[in-house]
Amino acid sequence: MDLIHLRNSLPQDVKVLAVSKGQPSSQIRELVSQGQIDFGESRLQEALPKLNELEDLNQIRWHFIGSLQTNKVRQVVKAFEVIHSIDSIKLAKRVSRIAGEEGKRPKLMAQVKLREDPQKFGFDSESLLKGWDEILQLSDVDVIGLMTIAPISLDMDERRTLFKECRLLADKLQLKDCSMGMTGDWEQAVEAGATWIRLGTLLFRP
Ligand SMILES: *Cc1c(COP(=O)(O)O)cnc(C)c1O
Prior knowledge:
This protein is α/β, with parallel strands linked by helices. The protein has one domain: Alanine racemase (TIM Barrel), CATH 3.20.20.10. The chain contains nine helices and eight strands. It has helices at 3-9, 25-33, 44-53, 73-79, 89-102, 125-136, 156-172, 186-192, 201-204; strands spanning 15-19, 38-41, 61-64, 82-86, 107-111, 142-147, 177-179, 196-199. α4 (73-79) crosses α5 and α7 (156-172) packs parallel to α8 (186-192). The protein is globular and about 45 Å long. The relative contact order is 0.15. Residues 19, 21, 42, 65, 149, 182-184, 198-202 line the site of pyridoxal-5'-phosphate (PLP).
């Protein structure tokens, strides 16, 4: 789909994260030339060479959206401005500590798992609420929102319901951002109050 068209059709507070995993840097350059600034990568090893190749495009904001292993935190903190995939208190604390050491201040989203899904990481709402005070006390990060991924088994109505739950939870925690919705369900996510939709296939399909 045409990016500019899509962007113009969205409510003003909904931003498009272009998920560029699996795409060469030439494709990223192409979208940057159409005004796209925010790009998401899910694997550090794949992302680093591309970040290097695109160093001249310093307007790009890199978002990390994949499962974040403990031993990759420093490199991610150094290279990415936003991390959508914080899935434990321990990880949040580590990110904050390392951000302090590196003189960085990443924006964080807590990944929440609101339905059983063996393939996805994330907080259930109970453990998020229980650990919330600890997260708020972290000194070197800004916690801006929640991220969620709908299990593939859900139909569109169920996705809409799930996304609304994520929005309500974010509101309860006084968080502005909800990163939810991908190529198959971004319209439901926008309806439910997403502020970031994460689109790969839709934007990069030839
Ligand atoms: C790959 C990926 C996306 C984009 O998926 P598409 O269906 O290609 O739009 C969004 N979010 C996460 C976390 C991903 O890993």
